[in-house]
Amino acid sequence: MRAPMTQQVFDACVVIPHYAGRQLLECLEALYACEDMAASILVVDDAGPGDAIAEAQSAYPGIHVLRNSSNLGFVGACNRGLTYALEHNHEFAVLLNDDAMVDPGWLRELIAALSADTSIAACQPKILSARNPAQFDYSGAAGGMIDRYAYPWALGRWFEHVESDLGQYDTPREIFWASGAASCYRVEVLRRIGLLEPVLKMHMEEIDWCWRAWLAGYRVVSVPSARVRHYGAVTLTTDRFRKIFLNHRNSMIMLLKNYSSATLACTLPVRLMLEAITVAGALITGKFKRAFGAAAGVLGLIPVLPEVIRARRRVQSLRQRSDAHVMRQMFPGSIALRYLLGRSAPEPHDLPKGRR
In the predicted model, what is the mean pLDDT of the chain? Predict the structure, then answer.
């Protein structure tokens, strides 16, 4: 008979923001099936409909639940959970979507990576599709990347094209951002550089945080030995107007917040030109929702600009690295233009080499 596996207790808080749907129960079932780990599990109930929270508390009485009196949105719910991790002096905090299912050993691998190198602020597992585990998931895949104009993509996911997992990204490496669907953060870095940016509301908040971490002197890495399966697009599908709007607006906010004034003066005009090309191309091809969503995203900067300027001042006060240094982690060209020209995703030799 096999000896029982020794349970390792991690000083980590797993933060699960929840709004609606019964996928939370499947998420918790996968967590509690991991016999080799134990961590504090916190569900943030963002004032959504349904009775999944009550069922979860009945089935898993060990979970902690924070109830928001009103809907704070994804960033607000995540920040409330991360604040809990800070207040309870956890060493690590994990953001895990409620439609994500972890594999055994996932947390052990993530924490091992952070424990081995204090310069690492955050790390991401390999994220596979829960609907088709042979393929990467859209949200983060094998690790987040970005170009110098603040257009993100992921290893294993190039715009709408998603790759099969053939082991091509199984070597740990530096990435630019760790997916908010499943990622592990060093709490002392959260304490130093702050939480997710509230003005973003939802979408790209984790990219913005990782950019801030790079500026502050930290690194972000992939941990492909840790595996998570994710349903994705449960609450907001990729073709919804609101998602298109938020993606374009929030990408522009990241650019405005995180670049120095000199870099912004060179980069912003090109980015605006790329936005114009996107809108024109979508109109010509009859993709009117995409055209109006992208245009609205740029115009949507105007009402939040005072808040963005205040956030920019906070970010620039944390700066320990130059833009030139951080740009070593970025694709040097425009992936949007590359995509519009019908080219494939950057090959491994095209990607940043990850020099410190």
Answer: 91
User: Would you state the pLDDT for residue 232?
Assistant: 78
Distance CA 231, CA 206 (A): 18
Model's pTM, two decimal places?
A: 0.93
Strands 100-102 and 37-45: unpaired
Domains of the chain as residue ranges with CATH? 10-230 (3.90.550.60), 241-350 (no CATH)
Please name the residues in contact with 142: beta carbons below 8 A apart, sequence gap of 6 or more. Answer: 126, 127, 136, 154, 155, 156, 165, 169, 222, 224
pLDDT in tens, 251-309: 999 999 999 999 999 999 999 999 999 999 899 999 999 999 999 999 999 999 999 99
Quote the CA–CA distance of 283 and 116 in Å, as a whole number. 50
